[in-house]
Design a protein that fits this description.
This protein is of the alpha/beta class and 253 residues long. It is built from 12 helices and 8 strands. The protein has an 8-stranded parallel β-sheet. The longest helix is centred in the last third of the chain and has 18 residues. It catalyses: D-glyceraldehyde 3-phosphate = dihydroxyacetone phosphate.
């Protein structure tokens, strides 16, 4: 059985006091939840605040990005080891917004994944197609390229530090959500590709999350699919009640 993961990507929201307040509201709402890994990803400046606020809870803290070198003349970058030192256990790599706005490529994603794994972080590796790519019928080709390049040189041992997040770009922040069947189809294809890249056991063990306008209203249907192992949540993770409802998906009707 793969343990479900519910991760909240806070993007460019929440200052220090707001970060502390949100975690103080969230913690009692998810206390006692078992069998679900809970992760939040605040902005860089709030990481230490989040780690301190989450102390004594089951909530883990992720960064939203990292660099592929540990030190050097790289103004503005943050190394995986520094994230680990700040108390992070996870890091998001390859998010569509990093690809769209900041020139992230499959090759740079690959370098970051390997550096993050080497630093002892667990990676949430994002893949997904744009609306134009889906309408052109190239969804599987795009995702296969992202996976093959992103995982180049990533060993089976490293894979144990990896979670894949499938996020159809056309469903992020738009209110649109892939149907349960659309999401499952892509998740199943990802798992099949992992069998060819690694082996059946590795593919069966790896968690694949869905990201794309996840809400309390649609989480249960998504989680009912065979190959969907959790969610990477955007806007709904910015409020304690909605994020807690997603974390508690097993209790909702």
């Amino acid at each position: 059985m793969r343990t479900p993961v519910i991760a909240g990507n806070w993007k460019l929201f929440k200052n220090l006091s707001e970060t502390r307040e949100l975690l103080q509201e969230l913690a009692p709402r998810v206390a006692g939840v078992s069998g679900v890994e809970i992760i939040v990803a605040p902005v860089f400046t709030a990481l230490t605040t989040a780690v301190q606020a989450a102390m004594g809870t089951t909530i883990r803290v992720a960064a939203q990005d990292c660099f592929w070198e540990e030190e050097g003349a790289f103004t503005g970058e943050v190394a995986p080891g520094l994230l680990k030192d700040a108390g992070c256990s996870h890091v998001i790599i390859g998010h569509s917004e990093r690809r769209q706005y900041f020139g992230e490529t499959d090759a740079t994603v690959n370098r970051k994944i390997k550096a993050a794994c080497a630093a002892g972080l667990t990676v949430l590796f994002c893949v997904g197609e744009t609306l134009a790519e889906r309408e052109a019928g190239t969804t599987f080709t795009v995702i296969e390229t992202q996976l093959r390049t992103g995982l180049a040189g990533v060993t089976a041992a490293d894979l144990q530090r990896l979670i894949i997040a499938y996020e159809p770009v056309w469903a992020i922040g738009t209110g649109k959500t892939a149907s349960n069947e659309q999401a499952q189809e892509v998740h199943a294809r990802i798992r099949t590709l992992l069998v060819s890249l690694y082996d059946q056991a590795a593919a069966d063990a790896l968690r694949i999350l869905y990201g794309g306008s996840v809400k309390p209203e649609n989480i249960r249907g998504l989680m009912g699919q065979q190959d969907i192992d959790g969610a990477l949540v955007g806007g709904a993770s910015l409020k304690a009640d909605s994020f807690a409802a997603i974390v508690r998906f097993q209790e909702t009707e």
